[in-house]
């Protein structure tokens, strides 16, 4: 199984482009801020307190970028998965492989929903809580960015679930026309 590590879009929609380019921009900002901080420390430049914000800013931007990057991975079905058993099931009985994928997507959707609820609650409760380093950035702002990333992951997981459910139903409909499901052959 080869992994596509390009930034090519699997779906060519405006929403997908916004998510991809936002994640890329945030990672770029993280690299710039981190590089700036390294040069300041390496050259022992006196910043007179002017650039002290680059270290926490890089940390905060990286946190949000990670969640948007995870959304891009969910969109492309490139998240971490152990596919061995699923591939064997799909080769043996395709409908069973799709059923396992549907159940897996439901579990992912449930987890993301719970995580999003918790993030929304934390965002509201910590909206004015200072986290240091940058005076105008609060814990609530950081959790808002995390919540946006989780929300985008949830949207992509629901889209994938609907697609898998449609494929499973199409297989079932095709199988019931002939009176039974078509059985695959187990490769041994």
Automatic annotation (TrEMBL):
Locations listed in the record: Cell inner membrane
Major localization class: membrane
UniProt-listed Pfam families: DctQ (PF04290)
GO annotation terms (biological process): C4-dicarboxylate transport
GO molecular function: transmembrane transporter activity
InterPro entries: DctQ, TRAP_DctQ
Superkingdom of this protein's organism: Archaea
UniProt domain Tripartite ATP-independent periplasmic transporters DctQ component: residue ranges: 31-166
Bilayer-crossing regions: 18-40, 56-74, 95-116, 142-162
Membrane-protein topology: Multi-pass membrane protein
Keywords annotated in UniProt: Cell inner membrane, Cell membrane, Membrane, Plasmid, Transmembrane, Transmembrane helix, Transport
GO CC terms, sorted: plasma membrane
Protein name: TRAP transporter small permease
């Amino acid at each position: 199984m080869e992994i596509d590590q390009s930034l090519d879009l699997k779906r060519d929609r405006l929403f997908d482009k916004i998510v991809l380019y936002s994640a890329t921009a945030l990672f770029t900002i993280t690299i710039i801020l981190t590089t700036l901080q390294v040069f300041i420390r390496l050259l022992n430049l006196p910043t007179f307190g002017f650039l002290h914000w680059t270290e926490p800013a890089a940390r905060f931007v990286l946190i949000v970028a990670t969640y948007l990057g995870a959304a891009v991975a969910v969109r492309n079905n490139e998240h971490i998965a152990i596919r061995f058993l699923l591939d064997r099931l799909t080769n043996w009985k395709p409908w069973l492989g799709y059923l396992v994928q549907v159940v897996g997507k439901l579990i992912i959707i449930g987890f993301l929903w719970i995580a999003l609820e918790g993030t929304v609650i934390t965002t509201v409760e910590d909206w004015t809580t200072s986290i240091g380093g940058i005076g105008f950035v609060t814990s609530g702002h950081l959790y808002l960015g995390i919540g946006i990333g989780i929300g985008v992951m949830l949207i992509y997981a629901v889209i994938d679930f609907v697609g898998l459910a449609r494929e499973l139903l199409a297989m079932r409909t095709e199988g019931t026309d002939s009176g039974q499901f078509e059985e695959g052959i187990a490769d041994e």
